[in-house]
Design goal:
Keywords (chain B): Membrane, Transmembrane, Transmembrane helix
Oligomer: heterodimer
Structural class of chain A: mainly alpha
Structural class of chain B: mainly alpha
Protein name (chain A): Tripartite tricarboxylate transporter TctB family protein
Number of strands of chain A: 0
Largest interface: A-B, 98 and 97 residues
Number of domains of chain B: 1
Distance between the termini of chain A: 59 Å
Largest sheet of chain A: none
Strand content of chain B: under 5%
Protein name (chain B): Putative tricarboxylic transport membrane protein
Strand content of chain A: under 5%
Radius of gyration of chain A: 27 Å
Keywords (chain A): Membrane, Transmembrane, Transmembrane helix
Distance between the termini of chain B: 56 Å
Helix content of chain B: over 70%
Organism (chain A): Nonomuraea fuscirosea
Chain lengths: 192, 502
């Protein structure tokens, strides 16, 4: 059950190579092709965020590990014959520390992060509407917060026209009402 | 082999309610396969609250339908738009889109549908034969074996996925750590709760899955690339001609086999098998240069293989209780929510779930074949729906769904917190998949390691002296050291080539 190696010819292969077949490392070529396609599809991806972001990510992970070590050692580690409640989280936290320290030193050249851009503000706006919905829902029911959320997302985050934003958000909330409240009778907090 | 439970399983599937959930599942799967944005993992995560209300069999039948239905749907976007809906459909793009440009999109879709159907069905048959055997073998497993298997599963998923291994393993460890929040089952001590009553019960799986898989994907898509929707190519006759079928026959057969075998491996699954099947066909072909320019086999092989793999990836979950990929982790969680522990006892203790789910896949595949050949036009039309409209609807379903789990706004906040965490993880190159998987397996791994230590009287060497747990742990070491081993092998290769030349 070792991880399948794409460079190895498939063991289920019923027949030997047809004579004259090029001894190409097909799977590798193919993987490269697939990667290229993936990259092309992701052209819209923002540029990578550089070494400081990598370092930052590693430091955050490291901090999580340190936090885990500190808290779990106060819980009591016990002994191997009688493991305390803190032993397992302690062991994991130590692994996190070791791995993220390694990441901090070796991972600076990685390019798998994404820079935050102006369009990240859209995510922030979206997030604010989510928190708004969560805090208003128990107070004034789900209808008005849902309507507002739909409208903000359609009109400003999705750049739909005023008309279709209004029509779609009203329609969707009405559909939710029919589905959740009338048909499924789920006890959502309601306005009335 | 006693086949009466299998037949009873068909009885379970043919109950009208279960048929309906199967239909709902495959339709949703097909839809989200076609629509941009959400993958099957995100969809299943978002729909988890619904599974509370319906019975375990119906729930898992529906979720499974979403999973393999998405494999069918993903093909449509690969062929028509050159946008693989799923990673496992990436290679389908090469020949699928080439065929579409030649005005033979219908042929590509038809062949893919038939291949998917054959691959799926062959895989279910093999699953029916293999799964009970594996489960029987695993019945003797004790805590040490489970601890070792759990660790191997987490490690494999972290290693095989795309992205940086180190980051994936860190994410997995964070998942293990999150699983310890709450009351310790052995000592009753409260861990990481900081006096909060909400945290004392531990963190629920549903908000974690909904946040990390569902909401994070929406937040991430919100920021970038409002992918301009291309207009899809025209789809003509989807019934493939006899000549095309003849050409694709061998590819479909071999694809089924490759898909089934690779699908069983944790972490490998659909993506790898589609690559392997395509590579094999290209190598066997008399004129390999046809590939990439509209070879029918180039569509048939990967699509057959990814469906076969999607089906066979149920084997480790249903027989060992080890999810083979992130989506299986969600189904694992859904079973736990229903009070069913997936594992070797599943086939004897809950035969209705075991056989019901497996047999529902026959029906699901037939439904999908119908939807992807005669009704393909409907789904092609859905391609025109704008992502901007779908996003807020999905968000509302997610948040309101999270609320309904415990009727509390606390769960909505949890979903938001994990949604933000998932979004940030994606921005910084960490995959959320290993975290969720490790979270699901976390308490199992911890409990069985601690039970094992009790059995061994505190001597960790006991893990290594038992044959099965020792073997599995040896595999763990190999997987962990794999990049180094591979580097060493690579270094040797040029020498060998030189030897051949001289």
């Amino acid at each position: 059950m070792s991880p399948p190696d794409p460079t190895r010819p498939d063991p289920t292969r019923p027949e030997p190579d047809p004579p004259g077949a090029p001894p190409l490392d097909d799977a590798d070529v193919l993987q490269a092709e697939a990667d290229r396609l993936q990259a092309e599809l992701e052209e819209a991806r923002p540029p990578h965020a550089g070494p400081y972001a990598q370092l930052g990510a590693a430091v955050v992970a490291l901090a999580a590990g340190v936090f885990g070590v500190v808290v779990s050692s106060t819980l009591g580690l016990g002994r191997l014959t009688q493991p305390g409640p803190g032993l397992w989280p302690f062991a994991i936290s130590v692994i996190i520390i070791v791995l993220s320290a390694t990441l901090a030193f070796t991972g600076r050249g990685l390019q798998d992060t994404e820079r935050f851009s102006r369009s990240s503000l859209l995510t922030v706006v979206g997030l604010v509407t989510l928190v708004g919905l969560a805090s208003l829902l128990p107070v004034i029911g789900f209808e008005i917060p849902s309507l507002l959320l739909m409208f903000v997302w359609l009109r400003w985050l999705g750049r739909e026209s005023w008309r279709s934003s209004i029509v779609i958000s009203v329609g969707a909330v009405a559909a939710f009402y029919v589905l959740f409240v009338l048909l499924l009778q789920i006890p959502l907090p309601r306005l009335i | 082999m006693d086949i009466s439970p299998i037949l009873d399983g068909f009885g379970v599937v043919l109950e009208p309610a279960n048929l309906l959930y199967c239909l709902i599942g495959v339709i949703i799967g097909m839809l989200i396969g076609v629509l941009p944005g959400l993958g099957p993992g995100a969809t299943i995560a978002i729909l988890l609250p619904i599974t509370y209300g319906i019975g375990p069999v119906s729930a898992i039948i529906m979720l499974a339908g979403i999973f393999y239905g998405a494999q069918y749907g993903g093909t449509i976007t690969s062929v028509l738009l050159r946008l693989p809906g799923e990673a496992s459909s990436v290679v389908t793009v090469f020949d699928g889109f080439a065929l579409a440009k030649q005005g033979r999109a219908g042929t590509a879709l038809g062949i893919a549908a038939i291949g998917s159907f054959v691959g799926g069905t062959v895989s279910i048959l093999a699953l029916t034969l293999v799964a009970p055997v594996v489960a029987g073998f695993a019945l003797d497993f004790g805590p040490p074996e489970y601890a070792a298997l759990g660790i191997l599963g987490v490690l494999l998923i972290s290693s095989v996925g795309n992205g940086n291994r180190l980051k994936a393993i860190i994410a997995a460890c964070v998942g293990l750590l999150l699983a310890t929040v709450g009351r310790d089952t052995f000592t009753g001590a409260e861990r990481f709760t900081f006096g909060s009553l909400n945290l004392a019960e531990g963190i629920d799986f549903i908000p974690i899955a909904m946040g990390l898989f569902g909401l994070s994907e929406i937040l991430y898509n919100l920021e970038e690339r409002h992918n301009q929707v291309h207009s899809p190519a025209k789809v003509g006759n989807v019934w493939p001609s006899r000549k095309d079928l003849g050409q694709a026959k061998g590819a479909i057969g071999r694809g089924s086999l490759i898909g089934f075998v690779l699908g069983v491996l944790p972490g490998g699954g659909a993506v790898l098998s589609s690559l392997a099947a395509y590579a094999l066909e290209k190598r066997r072909a008399k004129q390999p240069e046809r590939f990439g320019r509209g070879a029918v086999e180039g569509v048939a092989a990967p699509e057959t293989a990814n469906n076969a793999a999607a089906t066979s990836s149920f084997i480790p979950l249903l027989t060992l209780g080890i999810p083979a990929n992130a989506t299986m982790a969600l189904i694992f969680g859904a079973l736990l929510i229903q009070g069913i522990q997936p594992g070797p006892q599943l086939v004897t203790e809950h035969p209705d779930v075991f056989w019901g789910v497996i047999n529902s896949m026959y029906i699901g595949n037939i439904l999908l074949l119908i939807m992807s050949i005669p009704m393909v036009g409907v789904f092609v039309r859905i391609l025109r729906v704008r992502p901007a409209i779908l996003a807020p609807i999905t968000v509302l379903i997610t948040l309101l769904g999270a609320y309904t789990v415990n009727n509390s706004a606390y769960d909505i906040y949890l979903v938001i917190v994990f949604g933000v965490l998932g979004y940030l993880m994606k921005k910084f190159g960490f995959e959320p998949g290993p975290l969720v998987l490790a979270f699901v397996l976390g308490s199992m791994i911890e409990n069985s390691s601690r039970q094992s230590l009790l059995i061994f009287g505190g001597d960790p060497a006991g893990f290594l002296t038992r044959p099965i747990s020792g073997t599995v742990l040896a595999l763990v070491v190999i997987v962990a050291a794999w990049p180094l081993i591979r580097k060493a092998l690579r270094r040797k290769t040029p020498d060998r080539v030189e030897e051949k030349i001289t």
